[in-house]
Amino acid sequence: MNMNTGWKMYALEDEAVAKESFSPKNVAAFEGREVYENITVPVCFEEILRDKGVLGDPYFSTNCWEYAKFETHHQWYFKKFDCPFDKPVLRFEGIDTIAEIYVNGILVGKTDNMYTPFSFSLQGIAREKDNDLVVHILPCILEALKNDMTGVSAVSFKLPGTQLRKSIASMGWDILLRSPMGGIWQDVCLVNDDTCITDLYVHSELTPSGAAVYVEYETNVLGEDYELVIEGGCRDSVFTERVPLLRTDGKAYFFLRYPYLWNIRGYGEQNLYTVKAKLLCNGVVIHEKTVRHGIRKVELRRTSLIEENGCFEFHINGKKVFLLGTNYVPIEALKHIDKERMRKTLAMTVDTNCNAIRIWGGGVYECDEFYEFCDENGIFVWHDFMMACAIYSQSEAYAENLTREVTYQVKRLRNHPSLCLWAGDNECDNLYTLKQDENGNPLDPNKLNTLTRIVVPRALFALDTTRPYLPCSPYMDETGYLNKKRLAEEHLWGPRDYFRSDFYSKAECYFASETGYHGCSSPASLRKFLKAPWPIFDEEGRPTKEYLAHAVSVVDDYNSPYAYRIRLMSDQVETLFGKSFDNITDFAKASQISQAEADKYFIERFRIRRNEYGGILWWNMIDGWPQISDAVVDYSMDKKLAYYYIKTAQAPVSLMMDEDGNEVSLYLVCDVAQTATLSYNVIDAYTGEVACVGELTGKPYASVLVAKWARPEQKAFYIIRWTDENGQTHQNHFHTDIKGIDYEKYTAAAARYGLLVWEGFDE
């Protein structure tokens, strides 16, 4: 029974709660108080303050700074409900974060983790009619500060996040506004505690002669009257078995001589077996559960460091796969999960020729539909557990809380073949090495971070050994820590200056799991969240208050941690074009060109080296709130120019170029199983001169050098065109020495060849 509607809500500041000794346990306690009516969950406190007109839209202008004064408020969500069940269970799919649950004045339970559902038996408590339900959410910032902070560390404003199992990005991030207040962020329901199949887990193992398939099950009943019927199949590959329930858990085994395998996009079909378990009592089906399973083998082959014969690459079903993809962050800052935005974002992931997504550890675990899409579309999912950029509490209580979370999420998600890697956290190893011990040595995460070295792998060993585990991204194992060399897998951010500077052009890591570049939102989008999109800087050369707020600065302070980001974007534009701009239209276009060329270069540089490298996951597809960022689609869903450049750069078969010193090189990169035969020509859009022409055949899943020639003294804008064996024409481009170039000359040439796609510009 859905319980999402009909709620009311009341909030009171912490000092007032203490002064009044206010401790409501039933609905009547709120009579005479100013409550918010007609609340529907999922919802967070920030949304209520906005929707009820208490504060302005936090997504507009500088309104986000006004919400801080409510962070120490207690929240009470309450309602009346009827109970039609004889064994009722109240289930919260997600409460953010610290809460007490009262039914008819009785404390039925507490919550302390936004990532874990909580269920409470109401047997003997709930009546058939007119029950009271009160959910008291305590101010998480104050609750976090009650803990021992010894040894923890985080960037400014995020320290409470080291004590809580909630999205640390909600504390304020360089890509998301501060929104820590929480709420009931997922569904609420009332169910009957019926006889049922409680878990169904399918895993498999490839052998030289076929595939072994194991179906593990758990039920809450056993006895001679009960049996389980297991059925599975994909096309003409089927299996079935009847199992007497002499115990509440068990395992069935099947061997498939000719299994259909699951592969990621571009490397084969996404074959999925439908596996159904039916629970029978005296021959009558009383419950059934269905999952889908993809038979595949995933391997991570890695060395710790950049070295001779080093690597960081994935193999699926014995074949190396080169990953092209994006980082996935919360796509809606307040709701965390927005299914309609999610569907559009996933569709864009496929449209841009991605075969991989990395779920970043500062956000949330996604809904089931997300992983189902990835299963069906062959999207490799690199999945962080939810920890990022901090040294978290190592207390026993915190470890137990994390264990419960990992246990739940792994059991929920382990049936998805698209989930190919678990990673312990995002960048936490780096945080350790930035601090020093009493001898002046960097802290060693391998010795100190028990969460990712002991707690998480211990849970995975018990629940899921079918996919590799990486303790951190980037991971600094003992070898990496002791040698202090560049790691095989890195996050390539660096100075964020000229995108072909030595930091980027000479980066040696085999896998980049993060990298990106700023791009200004379109004027139409800017007008939706800024009163004055222009000028960007005030008379003292500082970002205007509005740009500061959306850059993202947690507070109204030019010295705040992320205040540099608007100037960074402006500097990147001036580096590319050698000048500043006097209007928002040209500035936004110049910034989008800068981002597009940068992202294109990052991707193509790795693809050209695909024979030795393992992949690149750029940052990121879409904004989670209106801002200035590295996303290639802004919050309003306007695609920046980079979206289209990336789509071209990630085409399965493509000709692409690079430059090194006084030479330019042309490569044919194929990420398909077939040979690619084509005819091509390369001309300079500025002069019309033909630089190269020919015919060639490319190798499957390989990068091949086609030609080299001397880089011209003058800057060249090469247009690369080719015709494939089906007579279809394709196009790419490459600009030499792309620094201090002429804006008008570039845009004229790019427009002439149809490269410029502008969304949200008044043209």
> How many strands, which pairing sense, and closed or not: the largest β-sheet?
8 strands, parallel
Q: Briefly note the CATH topology name of the largest domain.
A: TIM Barrel
The H-level CATH homologous superfamily of the largest domain, spelled out, is: Glycosidases
Structural class: alpha+beta
C-alpha-based Rg, rounded: 28 Å
**CATH architecture identity of the largest domain:** Alpha-Beta Barrel
Q: How much is the average pLDDT? A: 97
Span of the ends, CA to CA: 51 Å
Question: Can you tell me the overall shape?
Answer: globular
> Given the structure, what is the number of helices?
17
CATH class of the largest domain: Alpha Beta
Descriptive key words:
about 775 residues, alpha+beta, Jelly Rolls, Immunoglobulin-like, TIM Barrel, 8-stranded parallel sheet, 17 helices, 39 strands, about 20% helix, globular
Brief account:
The protein starts with 6 loop residues before the first strand and ends in an 11-residue tail after the last helix.
Describe, in plain words, how this protein is organized in 3D.
With 763 residues, this protein is of the alpha+beta class. It folds into 4 domains: 7-189, Jelly Rolls; 197-293, Immunoglobulin-like (Sandwich); 300-643, Alpha-Beta Barrel (TIM Barrel); 651-752, Sandwich (Immunoglobulin-like). 21% of the residues lie in helices and 31% in strands. An 8-stranded parallel beta sheet has the order 29-28-26-25-24-32-31-30. Strand 30 (489-492), helix 11 and strand 31 form a beta-alpha-beta unit. The two termini are 51 Å apart. The model has no long low-confidence stretch (mean pLDDT 97).
